[in-house]
């Protein structure tokens, strides 16, 4: 049996059904999703639930809350989400792939070696900002470098106000500052590239048993071990949502998130002389002037442009796909 408050139950979910409706349902949270079934936690127990019992089985995410009917033949109701994390599915078909739902804090895990990358961290930050989720950067493998401060300063340059923790994930004593990030009743998700030490971090924090691999001596990179999204109960009462490692993260619609991550760029966009400025050789371009005088970092501008190009391509592909979908005929 589980305590619903410990699982993250809130009035936001309670009010989605009337009191009389709840007499016929029980709330439960999805902890793990397999191909044909999912594992849910409720106040009664943990049990498996066939995916076919949902109206739209493809629209499920770990962290979702559902209403389980007391009559087993009825369809399981998926409750509206407070937020969701999603990326483009591999293949460039402009399809959304859910990462997790109903998350309070996002731990963006990178490492103090060749796996560290500003561009990837910016994408994760944009993902969090779009969903309204608090981000925290966790730098692992600090024991493998003699200059961990270099990586911490590089992360700090992306957001001067963000919380950054630098740890050896295998040393429980170094994880003390992370425990307050898992308060009772809140869900904290871990996200990062393959091999940055997320599984080791989970094993140390949640006393879990995730498989891990050593860092490759060939390229200094870790190996991907987590293949499924899953919830873990923390010793202090919070929840940890693990996600598979991602070498690449293509964003879905994320205009607000990108703007929030690049305020240093956005501040100049409306200062150009012409509204249709291409920011190349246009007269009165505030972006070009900022780059020339050094008040705007050229690398940041390049990465911002790349995200904007990807957003345009995604929306164009999505629009083209929607035009090909036949509309139902009126009867």
Termini gap: 50 Å
- Helix segment tally: 9
Give the strand line-up of the largest sheet.
10-9-8-11-13-12
Shape: globular
The CATH architecture of the largest domain comes to 3-Layer(aba) Sandwich
Q: Strand-and-helix sequence, N→C?
A: HHEEEEEEEEHEHEEHEEHHHH
Low-confidence stretches: 210-227
List how many beta strands DSSP finds. Answer: 13
The main sheet comes to: 6 strands, mixed
* Share in β-strands: 15-25%
**Global Rg:** 22 Å
Provide mean pLDDT, rounded: 87
Key structural traits:
single chain, 331 residues, alpha/beta, OB fold (Dihydrolipoamide Acetyltransferase, E2P), Rossmann fold, 3 domains, 9 helices, 13 strands, 21% strand
Your description of this structure?
By secondary structure, the protein is of the alpha/beta class. It has 3 domains: 68 residues, OB fold (Dihydrolipoamide Acetyltransferase, E2P); 159 residues, P-loop containing nucleotide triphosphate hydrolases (Rossmann fold, 3-Layer(aba) Sandwich), CATH 3.40.50; 70 residues, Ribonucleotide Reductase Protein R1, domain 1 (Orthogonal Bundle), CATH 1.10.40. It has 9 helices and 13 strands. The chain is globular. The relative contact order is 0.12.
Topology, please?
Layout: H1 11-14, H2 19-22, E1 25-33, E2 37-42, E3 46-50, E4 65-69, E5 77-78, E6 84-88, E7 96-101, E8 105-111, H3 118-131, E9 134-140, H4 148-156, E10 163-166, E11 187-192, H5 198-206, E12 230-233, E13 239-242, H6 255-261, H7 263-269, H8 286-293, H9 298-324
Helix pairs in contact: 3-6
């Amino acid at each position: 049996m589980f305590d619903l408050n410990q699982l993250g139950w809130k009035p936001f979910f309670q009010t989605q059904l009337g009191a009389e409706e709840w007499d016929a349902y029980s709330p439960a949270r999805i902890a793990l999703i397999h191909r044909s079934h999912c594992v849910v936690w409720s106040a009664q127990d943990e049990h498996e639930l066939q995916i076919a019992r949902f109206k739209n089985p493809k629209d499920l995410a770990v962290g979702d809350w559902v209403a389980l009917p007391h009559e087993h033949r009825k369809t399981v109701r998926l409750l509206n989400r407070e937020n969701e994390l999603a990326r483009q599915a591999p293949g460039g078909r402009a399809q959304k792939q859910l990462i997790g739902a109903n998350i309070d804090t996002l731990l963006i895990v990178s490492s103090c070696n060749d796996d560290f990358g500003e561009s990837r961290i910016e994408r994760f930050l944009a993902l969090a900002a779009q969903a309204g989720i608090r981000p925290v950067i966790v730098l692992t493998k600090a024991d493998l470098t003699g200059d961990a401060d270099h990586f911490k300063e590089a992360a700090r340059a992306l957001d001067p106000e963000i919380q950054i923790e630098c740890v050896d994930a295998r040393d429980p004593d170094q994880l003390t500052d992370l425990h307050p990030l898992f308060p009772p009743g809140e869900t904290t998700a871990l996200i990062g590239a393959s091999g940055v030490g997320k599984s080791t971090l989970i094993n140390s924090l949640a006393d879990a048993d995730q498989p891990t691999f050593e860092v490759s001596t060939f390229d200094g990179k870790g190996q991907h071990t987590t293949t499924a999204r899953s919830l873990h109960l923390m010793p202090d009462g919070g929840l940890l949502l693990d996600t598979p490692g991602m070498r690449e993260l293509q964003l879905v619609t994320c205009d607000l998130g990108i703007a929030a991550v690049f305020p240093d760029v956005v501040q100049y966009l409306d200062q150009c002389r012409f509204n249709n400025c291409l920011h190349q050789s246009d007269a009165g371009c505030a972006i070009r002037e900022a780059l020339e005088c050094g008040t705007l970092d050229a690398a940041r501008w390049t990465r911002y442009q790349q995200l904007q190009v990807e957003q345009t391509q995604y929306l164009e592909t999505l629009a083209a796909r929607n035009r090909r979908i036949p509309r139902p005929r009126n009867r």
